[in-house]
Design goal:
Blueprint (H helix, E strand, L loop, with lengths): L13 E5 L2 E4 L4 E4 L2 H4 L28 H11 L8 E5 L2 H18 L7 E5 L8 H6 L3 H4 L10 E3 L16 H16 L4 E7 L15 H11 L3 E6 L22 E4 L11 E5 L1 H9 L13 H16 L2 H20 L5 E7 L2 E6 L15 H11 L2 E2 L1 E4 L8 E5 L7 H19 L1
Parallel strand pairs: 3-13, 5-6, 5-7, 7-8, 8-9
Antiparallel strand pairs: 1-2, 2-3, 4-10, 9-10, 11-12, 12-15, 14-15
């Protein structure tokens, strides 16, 4: 009997992992088309932690810095699309989001506007499972047990061109979303809004929904005009996942704060990052400092592993590989399953690709939630030796079935064919 409080009732025991493959203790091999939870970017079993961790195990971040941390931050500062970046490492994406919201609040206090305490996010979003991050998230199934503890943030409509809420779609969707944000800021009171946060490209909640052209530029203009900080969530999309180092680089926008995680540690270490612009950092520190911290933030070991991830991404040109292999996977999926009656849309950027499933292609009607379509599909895929990242609720927070595909950037052409073939078989099994 296990004494572990597992997340699922009957987890599979893993034996080892290598490249794009995970092996269980019974010898079955699984092609990891999800990178775990869109985490593994350089591949499994690539670096030996013993080669990196050891110079300093732990020091308290309020007293010490370390060479590993300083060197990692210096290297990262040349890659992140933030002006004069100042890097606050955490133990994961949710902690990074918590840090970002506190930074936004601290900044507004520092500039003499303490009444600014509201963060605006988007419906159909996901920013993490801590209470602060969950409050920003628009996934009712995750919020429901804790709803009485939530309610500080406010939301604007989702960004999903397949299910765009704009009455004028597809005309001027970017402008429509920007106007929704501005109207929300005015309704709340511009003097009360501290920041707006959004995923650069949709994650689990919208299955890699890509914002329309001009969206981020229009949103940034609205935020700037009202003194609202712009926080871009790149927990899932950062460190090459969309074919650029950060997904916001597909635009010209430079956020005030950027958060990342997942690929930052590549699965080798729990690492998140909250990256503030010099303006945000200097304002907060000039007003007395940042009242916030975690025991395991600014980790020397985490920084060393983060540097090892950067080495592999740069030395093997894996960000470019992600763009190239992502286009191949997208094309093969479109060709093989894109016209199936149950496939509403295949979308995404780089090796972050979403597939939304529908019961009626013409009306885009989702499967009833009680059908548990996506759970059955994920199980059928596992039986075929394929790991996908399933999600429900992409239509109204409850109904709407989708998967995310986010394999390691090292995925080969043959493995891409396996992903497409095995997913096709899984879809056939569920249909039968």
């Amino acid at each position: 009997m296990s004494h572990v409080f597992h997340r699922t009732a009957d987890p599979i025991e893993v034996a080892r992992a290598e490249g794009c493959w995970v092996y269980d203790t019974e010898g079955k091999a699984y092609l990891d088309a999800a990178g775990g939870a869109i985490v593994s970017n350089i591949g499994h079993g690539v670096i030996d932690l013993g080669d990196w961790v050891g110079e300093v195990d732990y020091v308290h971040p309020s007293v010490f810095t370390s060479r590993a941390l300083e060197e990692y931050a210096d290297r990262l500062s040349n890659l992140v699309p933030v002006d004069g970046p100042k890097i606050f490492p955490t133990s994961g994406g949710a902690e990074a989001v918590e840090t970002a919201t506190k930074m936004a609040r601290s900044f507004q206090i520092a500039v003499g506007q303490p009444e600014r305490d509201v963060i605006i996010s988007r419906s159909h979003s996901y920013h993490g499972n801590t209470l602060g991050a969950l409050d920003l998230s628009g996934r009712p199934t995750l919020r429901q047990p804790y709803e009485s503890w939530l309610g500080r943030s406010q939301q604007v409509p989702q960004v999903n061109e397949y299910r765009c809420p704009s009455p004028q779609h597809p005309a001027d969707c970017a402008g429509w979303h920007a106007r929704q944000l501005e109207e929300k800021i005015i309704a709340i009171g511009p003097e009360r809004v501290a920041a707006f946060i959004g995923e650069a490209v949709g994650g689990a909640a919208t299955a890699a929904a890509v914002p329309p052209d001009g969206y981020w530029e229009a949103v940034a203009d609205v935020c700037k005009s009202h003194g609202v900080l712009l926080i871009v969530d790149e927990v899932m999309t950062g460190f090459g996942r969309t074919g650029k180092w950060f997904a916001i680089e597909h635009t010209a926008v430079r956020p005030d704060i950027l958060v990342s995680g997942k690929g930052a540690g590549g699965g080798y270490w729990p690492l998140g990052l909250c990256i503030a612009s010099a303006k945000v950092h200097d304002t907060i520190m000039g007003a007395g400092g940042f009242v916030h911290g975690f025991t395991f933030s600014h980790s020397p070991s985490g920084s060393a592993v983060g540097a090892a991830i950067l080495d592999k991404l740069i030395e093997d040109d894996l960000v470019s590989a992600c763009e190239i292999q992502g286009k191949k996977l997208m094309a093969r999926l479109q060709n093989a399953i894109g016209a199936l009656d149950v496939v509403g849309e295949v979308r995404g950027k780089g090796l972050l690709i979403g597939v939304e499933f529908v019961s009626d292609r013409e009306s885009k009607k989702p499967f009833p939630r009680e059908d548990r379509y996506i759970e059955r599909l994920a199980e059928a895929a596992r039986k075929e030796g394929l790991l996908v990242y399933p999600s429900s609720g992409c239509v109204d927070g409850t109904a709407g079935d989708s998967i995310l595909l986010g394999p390691p950037f090292t995925i080969s052409d043959d493995e891409i064919e396996m992903v497409v073939d095995r997913l096709g078989v899984a879809i056939e099994v569920v249909a039968a």
